[in-house]
Task: inverse folding
């Protein structure tokens, strides 16, 4: 099997699987219970909290566990709407956000907020100046992802947020860091973000767990109410096994970010070089992009057709992103892909255990697909 769909989800690493199983079997108490068993579960939570905080170069009290980045994004956006958004009704975001940002923002737009969507320019890039100039005195929130999940494009978040915070210190800056965390060398402070969303299953941890980083001094109001866990920000018994697995995955990979990045650069450069030799295949490039994600257009073959053809050969890719499930991607449209490319683009997303032979096999099978599927007019 050749698995090139790591932006959709990663295979949990052995450390994460071990931590989940051990916690399920031996540390299954409720972390809110006051007895010793509860304390042990709470210790597991806090140990994971510390590991994740260290990976963002911040304090553990800034990390709040959630069920995943979708929840973290919703919490960040709806909380801000309830705090600063009571008086300031403008939100600045981009046209290339994941639905877990674009949908909550759309909901607020339908309920009286003004939303400015920054779109990529002709080269498919977002100008930091466009983000900065869209923010004004009436803005409560700026929400931009760090790495686009469909193309790998890296947005100029740190630069934009630095200026935004200098000009409007009260505006809340939120960053969906799902495709950047543990892949790019980032810290909470270098991003200048007040709120940062993370997900466990994109970094070799379990599904159903994520976190929201909240900068000290930033007020987050809950959007769901209950037992007051996670300092009242996110009620609900914490998923201790998943959280332990998330922490174990972060710990397992936090010392190899640069090394893995370098390996991914070599892999994605190799894909670009080799793809040039195949007629009708284009790797869509941006000046700044994550080597973990490649957007590949194969002329004249519909992405879903190619996806299933490749699947039969044991190669797993995605059409657009797993979340867009077959419908034409608004995100790729915003990037300026023409109609033909929108229909014929697949996403390859890598992990540290992919290699060049797998790229060769992918391109070989693409050529076979072209020979078998493209009708000669
Ligand atoms: N944001 C981005 C950029 C993503 O790629 C994803 C996952 N596809 C999410 C948010 C949602 O993450 P989760 O699956 O943890 O809810």
Result:
């Amino acid at each position: 099997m050749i698995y090139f769909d790591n932006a959709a989800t990663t295979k949990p690493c052995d450390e994460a699987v071990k931590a989940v199983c051990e916690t399920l079997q031996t540390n299954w108490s409720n972390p809110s219970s006051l007895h010793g068993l509860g304390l042990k579960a709470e210790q597991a939570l806090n140990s994971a909290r510390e590991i994740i905080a260290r990976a963002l170069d911040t304090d553990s009290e800034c990390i709040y566990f959630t069920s995943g980045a979708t929840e973290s994004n919703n919490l960040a956006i709806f909380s801000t709407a309830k705090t600063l958004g009571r008086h300031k009704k403008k939100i600045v975001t981009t046209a290339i956000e994941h639905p877990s940002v674009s949908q909550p923002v759309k909901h607020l737009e339908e309920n009286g907020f003004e939303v400015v969507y920054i779109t990529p320019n002709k080269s498919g890039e977002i100008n930091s100046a466009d983000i900065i100039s869209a923010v004004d005195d009436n803005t409560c929130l700026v929400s931009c992802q760090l790495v686009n999940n469909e193309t790998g494009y890296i947005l100029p978040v740190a630069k934009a947020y630095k200026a935004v915070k200098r000009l409007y210190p009260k505006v809340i800056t939120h960053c969906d860091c799902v495709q950047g965390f543990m892949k790019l060398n980032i810290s909470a402070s270098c991003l200048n973000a007040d709120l940062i969303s993370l997900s466990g299953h994109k970094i070799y941890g379990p599904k159903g767990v994520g976190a929201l980083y909240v900068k000290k001094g930033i007020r987050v109001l809950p959007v769901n109410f209950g037992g007051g866990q996670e300092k009242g920000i996110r009620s609900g018994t914490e998923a201790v096994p998943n959280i332990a697995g998330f922490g174990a995955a972060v710990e397992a990979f936090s010392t190899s970010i640069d090394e893995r990045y370098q390996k991914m650069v070599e892999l994605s450069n190799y894909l670009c070089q080799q793809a040039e030799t195949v007629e009708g295949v284009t790797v869509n490039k941006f000046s700044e992009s994550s080597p973990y994600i490649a957007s590949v257009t194969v002329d004249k073959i519909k992405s879903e057709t190619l996806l299933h053809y490749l699947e039969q050969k044991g190669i797993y890719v995605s059409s657009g992103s797993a979340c867009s499930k077959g419908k034409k991607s608004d995100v790729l449209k915003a990037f300026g892909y023409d109609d033909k490319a929108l229909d014929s683009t697949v996403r390859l997303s890598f992990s540290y255990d992919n290699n060049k032979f797998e790229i060769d096999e992918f391109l070989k099978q693409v050529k076979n697909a072209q020979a078998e599927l493209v009708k000669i007019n």
